[in-house]
Amino acid sequence: MEKPDAMFSKDQDHLIPDEGQAAFTQLQAFLAQHELSEHGRLPPERELCDILGVSRGALRKALAIAESEGRIWRHVGKGTFLGSKPIGAVAPDLVLANLASPVEVIRARLTIEPALAREAALNASTADLDELKLCAERGRDAGSWRRYENWDNRFHRAVATATQNKLLVMMFDNLNTIRRTVVWGRRREATEGPAADHHSFAEHDAIVDAIMDRDPTASELAMRQHIETVSYNLLRHR
Can you give the pTM of this predicted structure? Predict the structure, then answer.
């Protein structure tokens, strides 16, 4: 079996009982290799147990570790979602309906994400750099738009995580929750996945290179250029 990608921190591995450790490993593999439903929602616990081949108790231990690290959050009656718990735990669709428009999301991204890239260049760990490279590579190899978008989302969160600033990560997660639920009113190209020359591949590489070079100015500029390209492509289809 392919070794699962490192999605959660290993700092707490020694705290997980053997049963929980096995479930945690299976959970990492599932999240890295499978497409999730809309809004990054995980399957129900009973279904996850069947998929992973683990007991309900073992699964809950694995989910507890993931939640403690801010990798997932739970909404009673709604399910379990990727990312940190949004402020107020408001359902994503309600946040969108009441607070955000596509243009507001774009302006927020242009304000926040270049600054996150700048901080990432100053503070990223070796593990953070490895995660960024992995996300860029897997996004390029994605065979479908859904799989590409999952890796793209993970790439941008990896930039936020690389800041080593929990408050900035929380701000990113709330913005990203809204972004992922915005109805942009556009259709994907009539292809199964992004073309080999899709603009984001080179742009993601430029962001990774700048962060690895520990160049905050270049990192900020590379992220700004990327968000501007994404924004242009989104708005011209509206």
Answer: 0.60
